[in-house]
Amino acid sequence: MDKTFDALLARMHELRDLGGVIGLASWDRETYLPTRAHEARSHQLSTLHGIQHERLVDPRLGELLAWASEAPGLTPDQRAMARVLTHERNRAVKLPRTLVKALAEAQSQGLHAWREAREERRFARFQPALSRLLALRREQADAYGHGGERYDALLDEYEPGMRVARLGPVLASLRDTLIRLVGALQAAPRQVPELFQGRRFDTEAQWRVSLRMLGDMGFELDAGRQDKSIHPFSSGLHPTDVRLTTDLDEHSLEGLFSTLHEGGHGLYEQGFQPAHHRTPLANAPSMGLHESQSRLWENLVGRGRPFWTHYFPLMRDTFSEGLAGVALEGFLAAINRVTPSFIRTAADEVTYNLHIVLRYELELLLIRDELPLDELPAAWNERMRRFLGITPPDDLQGVLQDIHWAWGEFGYFPTYSLGNLYSASLYAAARRALPGLEEGIARGELRPLRDWLRDHVHAEGYRLPAEELVRKVTGQGLTDVDFLAYLQSKFGALYGVTL
Amino acid sequence: MDKTFDALLARMHELRDLGGVIGLASWDRETYLPTRAHEARSHQLSTLHGIQHERLVDPRLGELLAWASEAPGLTPDQRAMARVLTHERNRAVKLPRTLVKALAEAQSQGLHAWREAREERRFARFQPALSRLLALRREQADAYGHGGERYDALLDEYEPGMRVARLGPVLASLRDTLIRLVGALQAAPRQVPELFQGRRFDTEAQWRVSLRMLGDMGFELDAGRQDKSIHPFSSGLHPTDVRLTTDLDEHSLEGLFSTLHEGGHGLYEQGFQPAHHRTPLANAPSMGLHESQSRLWENLVGRGRPFWTHYFPLMRDTFSEGLAGVALEGFLAAINRVTPSFIRTAADEVTYNLHIVLRYELELLLIRDELPLDELPAAWNERMRRFLGITPPDDLQGVLQDIHWAWGEFGYFPTYSLGNLYSASLYAAARRALPGLEEGIARGELRPLRDWLRDHVHAEGYRLPAEELVRKVTGQGLTDVDFLAYLQSKFGALYGVTL
Predict the structure, then answer these.
(1) 3-state DSSP call for residue A271?
(2) Which positions does UniProt annotate for Zn(2+) binding (chains A, B) (predicted)?
(3) pLDDT over 90 (residue B2)
(4) Coil, helix or strand for A237?
(5) Do residue A40 and residue B225 have CB atoms under 8 angstroms apart?
């Protein structure tokens, strides 16, 4: 066998092209697929995944990677490419086919049972399927290997290198402070009224505004697009082909924030450097770091005063009826209103991470087998009370609310909080590096921030693990300090309290 | 190796899924791909084609097919599946990799040279590249094998089973009669005036009309879609996912006819029976037979009096300005106006096939190496004069007009004429089988025709070669009799002459 880096690169390109096509077929499924074609598309995706897996575990790829791990004369980027692919391949090789099949069946049963349980608003209906999924995930974690903490092996799928020992204390600290902040804000003498109820915002106009914001952010619409789908998502088929979706609702402006969110993901995908295209380096090192970019644009920029100083006049012209009688101050308060709620997806910046920590704590107990499953609904509700002061009226709004567990997905939720924490650290670093950043944003100048993120985060690709990259850019690794300082400053001012 | 039909079927499914995904990636390239993503898409398509080819030539597939060719107890459909795939595989296996690579390079050079030649309006600029392409196509034909007529081996790619010895006399007869008809129509005392110049037809309204016509035809919009692209095409990703495109122009109603054309292709794809899905039987047996369905709906139905008896009132309501002063009779005459022209794509039903025969005759001479290349433009122009009585003003409107030869594609053009001939025979058979068919069409009832075609043509899939299938349905094989009778009757009445 010809052992050269070009031979390895050809295999990387092939895997990457397959990934792009899988991305296309998945994107199309959510946007343009005819309703009756879902079964055909499932077959096609299954075939593509099968080929991708076969290519990944091919022993000759293993030989090439083994060669590359010791070959002299490779560049640092070439070494990083081989390292990333080796990590991915090792995980795939360790997973027995029987387990993959059992998991697929259990996931299908899990979804079915979860849907029935939701109909009945009764967790017990879902419990046996969840039990089976947990057993298989533990088995999967053992197949991957870990140092005694199975959750680490699952977390690694989404957040390579992150460990419970590192993550747990940070999330515990975040949780305690957030509980305190929520209490203080609820007790604040100045409260923020709901503003949007009963108002209407033409969705065609929202579509135009969202495309303008994307363009202003520096999202390149000749190397990507925006379409409509029921749940917004972003999909990087290739750095020149980054597809975002949005879901606009005439009774709300939330669609604009979801555009900023997906746009943040999209800028990351477009920012991988050409030398990394079609290689494992054209990737974020973790889901959490990817999420940091979406949350940065959605919240730290998109719910901030500078941003709306520029855009609010446009909004008032565009939605003169919908925003009748609303001034910038009222608008800013309304889009930052803090209200404990049952559902994460509707949560504000302060309460959001409490939803995540709640799940993380429960996931950890479940994977450790330290929480009997029939106590899960009570454990959920107890934490909701302790963290947010509210009690779900039933399992539907409690433990059954989300599809992730029905799919047997554990280890993913923490990436949302990591995204929030990293976003604040990166934004703080950007402000230090770019004096006048927010004055510029208030004039509609979003490109300097995009360029700084591109240079320092996006163009790095997957050269370094997420936390190392963040440390390189900000001077410190994972921490809740920047995030909490941001919340305290912003929401303290908004609610007229010292946090 | 496990030699069962299920093992073979799994490979058929995989190949078919790959074909569907290639179809998706190609469709997306013409509809929604961001402008800067073309290079990435080329890589993705090249990777998919490579995997598809590798799967097709896999020796284990060869063993399974050899087993199936002799295995007892297979159903007739299973035998047909194996036979079709064996034919496809044999062609792929016979093509040396070096030739595939040389062809790809020559095609790329051919396109480049053709574009330059068009700029200069000078065939000589294109001649060396065309010479190379012809040499490689002859080599390819020899690799496939043939009984002395190389063109047969190329024709077989698009029209399996068809041979020059069978096709040539039919096209020669067609040519001679058409030359006579064109002359007679030009000499007819009643001439049809141009009608559409200077009129405007809102493209949004055309879009709605086109979707309505597709629905009326029985094209299932929950198992397919229509989008916009520069050149209209149809693409069957799967029988539940059939995608048509159109290009609407406010100065013309031609887009509606292209919708009927692509809709005819689309009905064929949707009509494959579920038992054949994801197998080689969910295919038309030839391009000519596929084209028969598009031409049937575009011309025999879509340019006929019964069709417009129903739709013209709707058109007059929809395009009250654009069709001001136009009555059904004038409209019917205008959409059937016969005018010799230089370009096939703009040709009417009478002159169209003369463009095809012209190219077929030249292709045959070129592949046989019986026409020196520097005499090609003169040979083209001489035939244009003899067939249509007009002389191209330059090579751009003559021999350089079309991209097919620049791409080295020979053997494809005859399928257009085969489509026209088959369409007339099939429509005549439908009229015999369905008394009152055209009275029904005049009431807007298009489904009986769709259902008849589905039962007798579409649901057959690739069980039989094209001509055998046509013989089974109509009682006769390839013939120009029905087509010429159709032209003589329709255009004789229109121009007030006996043809």
Answers:
(1) coil
(2) 261, 265, 291
(3) no
(4) strand
(5) no
